Amino acid sequence: MTRSRKPAKGRKPALTPKLKKLALLLPAVAEGTMTKKAAMLQAGYSESSSNQQSSAIGAIRNNTVMQEALRKAGVTEEAIAQGVKEGMEATRLFSANFELHEAPDFHARHAFVKTGAELLDAFPSKHIDATVTNLVGYNELDAAPKATSPEDARKIAEKQNE
Question: How distant, in Å, are the alpha carbons of 15, 76, 88, 136, 137 from that of 85?
Fold first, then answer.
């Protein structure tokens, strides 16, 4: 029985050629120009593996249609920012001794602070960042050629196949 060697402490294991190809295709998946399954197949995984592994990669959302609809409705980044800022100052009314009083709504404020932090990308992505980080070391990812379109991704993957 062959045992795989563990990498030295503090080092990531070397990537397989398939994982390198897949890492190069993930930006096209994130943009929505390629499905996870198609990326897996193009990287060299079998049909059954691509079904299983594409679900393990996690949900990489493509929300282009929703973005277009919001922009047509007049929702802009400035309007969202203003709404978040106002929400961070939310108050609520309550009655005490037959009088209305205003107090900070900490629950609502927390929700708006969290939303603002997410919009500022203050939290690491739970899906794609974790997947890429686990598949690829940062140095390898920075050194890898970047695909700006699905065609670029295919050309890079073909070069990796050679």
Answer: 44, 14, 5, 37, 37
- Written as one letter, the residue type at 32 is G
Read off the amino acid at residue 128.
Answer: I
Helix, strand, coil percent values for the chain (each to nearest 5)? 60, 5, 35
Reported as type and span, the H/E element at residue 93 is: strand 91-96
Q: How is residue 9 written in tokens?
A: 């402490």
Query: How many CB atoms lie under 10 A from the CB of residue 67?
Result: 11
Taking alpha carbons only, the member of 161, 152, 157, 156 closest to residue 33 is 152
User: pLDDT tens digit string along 32-47?
Assistant: 788 888 888 888 888 8
Q: How many CB atoms lie within 10 A of CB 132?
A: 18
Cross-strand bridge partners of residue 94:
101
Question: Is the Cα dihedral 54, 55, 58, 62 positive or negative?
Answer: positive
- The pLDDT tens digits of the residues spanning 84-142 come to 999 999 999 988 888 899 999 999 999 988 888 888 877 665 555 555 555 555 555 55
Q: How far apart are CA 1 and CA 59, in angstroms?
A: 36
